[in-house]
Each structure stands twice: as structure tokens, then as C-alpha cells.
Amino acid sequence: MNQGLRIIGSAGIAEVDSQDRGSFIATTASPAGALLNPFSALEYDHPMFGAVTDGYVFESMRHFIDVVDAHLQGCAVAGRYPDGASALASIRLAQSVKRSLASGAIVTV
């Protein structure tokens, strides 16, 4: 499901799209436009630690490192995480979609 807002005017277009987690703006003065994603990486001055870089990109990287670290230390990791079998299923699905688009036919996975 794609959630967003698109405003089209006589001098340009502005779009906020939750799928891309950002916004796109193009105007007659700048027709190539600009894609802005201000929450992916934020930098701010923390009162105790000084300059801090944060945002959902860094949060997901930190989470990945924490899960790998816990696994290497032999700790049980709460939650369900993908394994090789699910990765293989994703690849097969993507290849089937590509073949279907190229042939115009339904492809069985």
C-alpha cells in the first residue's frame, strides 16, 4: 500500500511518499527536481555527547549489529529473523516476477 500526497500546480509538483520515506519537489525552475529524505540521517548537537548522527538508517544498522553480536555471544535473540531458506524464496520470487514481466505470462514459483 502506498501512502502519500501529491500536489500538482502550474509551476511544479511536490510529493510526499511514505514508500520512499521522503519527498520529491520539481518546479519549472528546477525540472529535474530533488528527492529529500530528512529523517534517514539526522545530525544534531546532544547536550552531553556533542554532535550525534541518528535516523532510521542508523537505527537499523545498529539493530543488525546488536543481533549479530548477540548471536556470536551465544545469546538467544528474540523475534523471528530470515534465514537462508527465506532468502532463497525471495530470490526465486523476484526471478519469477522478472520472467513474467518479460514474457507477459504467469510464471509459477
Q: Could you please describe the fold and organization of this structure?
A:
With 109 residues, this protein is α+β, with helices and mostly antiparallel strands. The chain has two domains: 1-38; 39-86, no CATH class. It is built from two helices and six strands. The strands form two sheets. The chain has a four-stranded antiparallel sheet, with no helix packed on it. A two-stranded antiparallel sheet has the order 5-6. The longest helix is centred in the C-terminal third of the chain and has 20 residues, at 84-103. It starts with a strand and ends in a 6-residue tail after the last helix. 0% of the residues are buried.
Please identify the structural class as seen in this structure. alpha+beta
| End-to-end CA span | 23 Å
Shape: flat
Q: What would you call the quaternary organization?
A: single chain
Tally of contiguous helical segments? 2
Share of residues in strands: 25-35%
Radius of gyration (CA) equals: 21 Å
Tell me the number of structural domains.
Answer: 2
Order of helices and strands: EEEEEEHH
Report the major sheet: 4 strands, antiparallel
Mean pLDDT: 83
Low-confidence stretches: none
Secondary-structure map:
Elements: E1 4-9, E2 12-17, E3 22-27, E4 34-36, E5 42-46, E6 50-54, H1 56-72, H2 84-103
Antiparallel strand pairs: 1-2, 2-3, 3-4, 5-6
Brief characterization of the structure:
The chain is α+β, with helices and mostly antiparallel strands. The chain contains 2 helices and 6 strands; from the N terminus they run E-E-E-E-E-E-H-H. Helix content is 34%, strand content 28%.
